[in-house]
Write a sequence for this structure.
């Protein structure tokens, strides 16, 4: 099967391509990227006026499968992902049971290959059951294709145990993805510690809850030599510490989620649980630092932390709602609208942070690039399309977004994963 994508604006960070090209896909590979390809194909896709980019790689999602499939499943999460142009995602292990051994990783990978139109890389927990007492089967999980371990949802508070886990990960050649939150400092906080929390009579989460663990984890990475990826960074000091770590030559990378670079705590209306997530929406200075960090290259990755919950779990007050919001169907449009259109990032920066850098960090050599020989994971994105985000149109089971009703630009027209058209927009 050959698919020819004609006349699109190819953005390919690794080769620097930024212009009009045709792209020929055969089976699961890109075989040619040239000015004009005069060759027969089984299917022709006209990409005139659209960008053709490497499929997005979301390094941080919660697919809730196994155990919480009332929130999401490999099938619904996969369908939502490809709608958002995401062709590969890393699924966090805070499921039921927690993914903490080889068999559980193999089970998800086998089911995802059947059920999800997007590629799924299951991540393993650092500790058994994410309880923080003994290390999980890191070696077995690495052998089963976990590219990283993560205790996401919480931090491993026992630094000695975490250090052992990092050493093991380093030995196995995999990364550590860190959720940075000192649980002893949360003290019942549910949103950013500021005047908004005071006004609502809610307990606050200070920046230092995140910052002290970012500092600790960077120091542990320095000692163990493990590759450390800092998930959902939300504070100005996190950005500064990632800068210092890089200056020090450490293999440390930083991730920012769209909600953290778009919204501040001042945007929380009344007492709406759809604005509740961990870490919380922060102040203006933090949001500005995150944007600046993305612009100047300190922050490497845009990932969603897609965290679907049921209506019942989210349709509550700030104090009572579950932490987390959905993101995979809106991240490309939000990133384009909030960062690229205003000139903070270029289209190449966007492709880098949503695809190329994640591929490099994860060691996915055949991904993150629209060039000859690479995997045919491609997104065709039309930035001329303007629309209003409607949570009722989501393929995800989760409707918990603070972006419902927000105007954005940027529509995914086609998504190819593994050389197959896995999503086509109905709007044409
Ligand atoms: N981000 C969240 O608020 N929630 C995540 C956990 C996490 O990413 O820490 C979840 O699993 O629901
Ligand atoms: Zn987390
Ligand atoms: Zn998460």
């Amino acid at each position: 099967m050959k698919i020819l994508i004609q006349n699109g604006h190819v953005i390919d960070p690794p080769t620097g391509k930024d212009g009009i090209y045709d792209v020929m896909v055969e089976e699961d590979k890109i075989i040619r990227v040239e000015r004009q390809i005069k060759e027969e194909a089984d299917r022709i896709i006209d990409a005139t006026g659209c960008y053709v980019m490497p499929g997005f790689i979301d390094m941080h999602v919660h697919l809730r499968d196994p155990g919480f499939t009332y929130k999401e499943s490999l099938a619904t999460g996969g369908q939502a992902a490809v709608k958002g142009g995401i062709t590969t995602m890393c699924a966090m292990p805070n499921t039921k049971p927690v993914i903490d051994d080889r068999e559980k990783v193999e089970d998800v990978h086998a089911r995802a290959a059947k059920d999800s139109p997007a590629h799924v890389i299951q991540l393993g927990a650092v500790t058994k059951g994410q309880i923080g007492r003994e290390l999980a089967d890191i070696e077995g999980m690495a052998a089963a294709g976990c590219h990283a371990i993560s205790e996401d949802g919480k931090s491993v508070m026992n630094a000695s145990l975490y250090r052992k886990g990092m050493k093991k990960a380093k030995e196995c050649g995999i990364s550590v993805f860190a959720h940075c939150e000192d649980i002893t400092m949360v003290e019942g906080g549910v949103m950013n510690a500021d005047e908004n929390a005071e006004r609502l009579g809610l307990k606050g989460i200070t920046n230092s809850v995140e910052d002290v663990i970012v500092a600790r984890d960077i120091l542990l990475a320095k000692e163990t030599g493990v590759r450390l990826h800092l998930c959902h960074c939300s504070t100005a000091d996190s950005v500064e510490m990632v800068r210092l770590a890089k200056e020090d030559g450490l293999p440390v990378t930083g991730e920012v989620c769209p909600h953290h670079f778009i919204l501040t705590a001042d945007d929380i209306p009344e007492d709406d649980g759809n604005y509740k997530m961990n870490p919380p929406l922060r102040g203006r200075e933090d949001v500005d630092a995150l944007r600046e960090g993305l612009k100047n290259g300190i922050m490497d990755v845009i990932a969603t932390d897609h965290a679907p919950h049921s209506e019942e779990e989210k349709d509550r007050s700030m104090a009572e709602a579950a932490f987390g919001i959905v993101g995979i169907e809106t991240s490309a449009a939000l990133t384009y609208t909030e960062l690229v259109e205003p000139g903070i990032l270029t289209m190449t920066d966007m492709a880098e942070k949503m695809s190329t850098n994640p591929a490099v960090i994860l060691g996915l050599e055949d991904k993150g690039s629209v060039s000859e020989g690479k995997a045919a994971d491609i997104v065709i994105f039309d930035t001329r399309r303007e629309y209003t985000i409607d949570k009722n149109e989501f393929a995800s089971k989760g409707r918990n977004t603070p972006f419902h009703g927000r105007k954005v630009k940027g529509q995914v027209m086609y998504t190819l994963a593994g050389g197959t058209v896995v999503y086509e927009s109905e709007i044409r």
Summary: The CA atoms of residues 29 and 376 lie 5 Å apart.
